[in-house]
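Quick log. Single chain, no ligands specified.
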Amino acid sequence: MRLLQWFVKHWLVLSERVLLVGLAILLWAIAYPSIDQTHTFEFHWVMQVWVINLLLMIVSAGGLHLWFIRFKKQGNTLKFDPRVQGKNNSLWNFSDQVKDNMFWSLGSGVFQLTAFQVITMWMMANDYAPTVTFADNPIWFVSALVLLPIWSAFHFYWVHRLLHVPFLYKHVHALHHRNVNVGPWSGLSMHPIEHVLYLSSLCVHWIVASHPIHLIFHVIYQGPGAAMTHTGYEDLLIRDKRRLALGTFYHQLHHRYYECNYGNQEMPWDRWFGTFHNGTEEATRQTRARKKKMYQ
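-> predicted structure:
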């Protein structure tokens, strides 16, 4: 029943995933170059992919930032942390949290997102990566859309645990964790090495048969989708009704206490490996004890 409820919540209503799949189909049809155009690396189509990805990040993260942070259209309703974004602090590049996050997201983030996508498109065009069409296998075509976020959750948990190894945390992951009070631009704000590890989730298309729509959906899910999940708000309210799920208290606790909730609610890895924080004082004590032991 829980699996059925999860499926209904995420796929049979107007959810983040349904919107992203619709956007992926639209972009495949009218914006990104076709696979037939990507047999050889050429400047024009590579730049086309980069520009589209850049605009996607600007529109998604920028739009959410304007709505929630700049114009405060929802105030502090359903906001996890009532504080404003950081300014006048040397912790951030440019002494500004938003500008710092934009720099890493639009720089290394969009560049590496594009690189993984371009390489995968080239591999598909040259039959180095297996492909599938809806006509060939409609069941797998639809199933792959449902399974990609689950694969992403599996990949994210283990990469995230790796990034919390003290050496990698200090030199790489700490950049992302400067965002205790997250905002839309925080989602893809990472060290370049972390971008490589995080976006390597896209390499699944090199092995498992997929379609360009699957690839585009995965790209949007990993890039602009991260802006949605790091909005800092639980849901988008329209006329006082929750219309779209955004961030989760689950991941907010990770940004607050660091050594807990490494994954997300798609997969129960944190429960299985004893790193789950449920928001209680007891869980906070356990998390702090685990962190102290890690850094001894």
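The first strand starts at residue 235 and ends at 238.
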